[in-house]
Amino acid sequence: MFAPIPIHASRHSETHAPFTPPWLYRNGHVQTLAGLYLYAPRKTLSQAAGIRSTTGDVLLPDGDRLVYQDDCPAGWQTGDRIALLLHGLGGSHASPYMVRAAAQLHQRSTRTFRLDWRGCGAGAGLSRYPYHSGRSEDVAVTITHIQTLCPGSPISLIGFSLGGNVVLKLLGEPRHSLTQLVGIDRALAVCPPIDLHLSVLSMQQGWAKLYDRYFCRSCTRDVSARLRQRPDSVIPDGWFSRRPRTLYEFDETYTAPVSGFESAADYYARSSANQFLPGISVPTLIIAAQDDPLIPFSQFRNADYSAGTHLQTPRHGGHLGFCSFRGQHWLNQQIAEWVVDGR
Questions:
Q1: Which residues are CB-contacts of 157 (< 8 A; sequence separation ≥ 6)?
Q2: Which of 224, 249, 271 delimits the end of a domain?
Q3: Cβ-based neighbour number of residue 330 at 10 Å
Q4: Are residues 206 and 69 in the same domain?
Q5: Residues 187 and 223 in one domain
Q6: Among 31, 81, 130, 198, which is most exposed with the fewest C-beta within 10 angstroms?
Q7: Which tens digits make up the pLDDT trace of 69-120?
């Protein structure tokens, strides 16, 4: 069920079972909402999978801190595999897709680190600056920190949506040397917006406007919450007097000026992963549904890939959905097979 698409990389779909949801789920919006609400875990990861989870933090060069959940399976030893999981916009370590993926990897004896971006989840109140799609340097610092905790362990990077873009950007950037990325032997990006400008503008059309409004309001509330928790948070002058109505306006008036970009267009141009894809040397799998209502599929057709990048493009799946009557079993299985089995 994978449509031929013109890419410059080998395709990985031949060794993966196709995703064929029941007809009730063959709609991108249904898939997206089902993954977010219908199959959301009712228990914490420790309750659901018996994982011993601890909390740790990472000090960043600018003084902000990131927080992670360290999920260590019984019997795990130094040198065994670990995976760093990165959530999407508005998410956290407790997002359903993060919990499900970690639980699946736990069954395969993989230790997972579920990272909260700046100011998210357990890291609320610990950052003056916001997270965004270009924060690859934060991931690089986190990897170095994890390597000190788990010396010699092979590392897999798994990014969802915004987190997927950051993973791909990190791996393809020339400023990150092979020495910095040593130990990373696998990477996976699920529904990454590799063309940020195209993705944000597409959400201003049709039914996607509902998602745009949701994310804009969510991001605006996060700014208010951050300011209450950290009165020294960086906020543009007069920002609350002209609150944004779209995600583009939010990035134009808040993300860009606070994060050192000239404008939203400059932020998107410098942070989109599509320009870095040819430089990726780590074996990487990208999973992108053709009916994703948030991310136009055309950006994957038009991208240039490295030889070690594999693209899996089921016709259905929505945005971080890939649900059947069994939940997200298919997606979790793809993650486990790629990370643990390397296929």
A1: 83, 84, 86, 139, 167, 170, 171, 184, 186, 187, 188
A2: 271
A3: 21
A4: no
A5: no
A6: 198
A7: 999 998 899 999 999 999 999 999 999 899 999 999 999 999 999 999 999 9
With tokens 């990150």, the residue in question is 176
CB 8 within 8 A of CB 305: yes
Co-location of 310 and 260 in the same domain: no
Number of domains within the chain: 2
State the Cα–Cα distance between residues 196 and 13, nearest whole angstrom: 25
The whole-angstrom separation of Cα 112 and Cα 157 is 10
Residues 171, 131 share a domain? yes
81, HSE (Cβ side, Cα atoms, 13 Å): 20
- What is the DSSP pairing of strand 284-287 with strand 184-190? parallel
83: helix, strand or coil: strand
Amino acid of residue 123: G
Domain range spanning residue 267? 196-271
Q: Are residues 154 and 190 in the same domain?
A: yes
Backbone dihedral region for residue 271 (phi beyond 0: left; psi -120 to 50: alpha; all else: beta): alpha
- Cα–Cα distance, 139 to 143 (Å, whole number): 6
Residues 330 and 211 placed together within one structural domain of the fold: no
